[in-house]
Amino acid sequence: MNEPQSEFVEAMGLLLEEERFPRVSGRILGFLLITDDTCSLDDLVTELQVTKASISTNARLLEAKGVIERVSRPGDRRDHYRAAPDLPHRTLQARVAKMTRVRRAIQLGRDTIPDASHLVRQRMDDMIASYDLFLDVTTRALDTLVERKHATSAHGPAQGGATERGAAS
Question: What number of other Cβ atoms are within 10 A of residue 149's Cβ?
C-alpha cells in the first residue's frame, strides 16, 4: 500500500470509529474499498499489520452488518472478503431504518404529551417534521441509486469472479 492509500485506510478507520465500530473495522473496509480482488484474512493481516484474531473478529462484525461479504474461491479453503458491491445502497437502507425507529420514538413521545406546553409540542413537531424530510429525501436517493444501478448494469458487463458464500443482507 502506498502512502495515500495508507492515509485513506486510516481515515476510514477513524470514520468508522466515530460510528462506534472498532478502528480496525474501518481499516479493513478502507482497504477492501481500494482493492480490486478479494482478500484472505492472511492478506489483511499482512497489509494492515494487525493480528489475525483482530482481523477475523472485525471481518465477522463487518460481514454481519452487511458492509463486506465473505466469498470463496475454487480450490482455496480459506475465506476471502470484499466490500459489498451495493455498499451505498445498504448504508442508506440502514440509515433509513435507524431514522425510522427514531422518528417512531419521537412520535410516541409526542403522543404521550397532549397537555404539554406549546413549546414542548412545537419542539416535538419540529423533530418529527425534520425526520420526515430526511426520510423522504433519503428514500428518493435510494430509488435513484437503484435506477442508476439498473441503467449501468443494462449497458455494461456483469461482474464475475468469486462465488458468494453467505453474503449478509
Answer: 14
Please answer whether residues 152 and 124 qualify as being in contact, where contact means their C-beta atoms are separated by less than 8 angstroms. no
Given a cut of 70, is residue 167 above it in pLDDT? no
C-alpha cell at 46: 499482512
Longest alpha-carbon distance in the chain: 68
116: cell is: 404539554
Element (DSSP H or E) covering residue 76: strand 76-83
Mean pLDDT of 9-30: 96
Which residue's C-alpha cell is 493480528? 51
Q: Which cell numbers hold the place of 8?
A: 485513506
Which pLDDT score, from 0 to 100, does residue 155 have? Answer: 67
pLDDT value at residue 163: 39
Question: 149 CB contacts (<8 Å, ≥6 apart)?
Answer: 86, 89
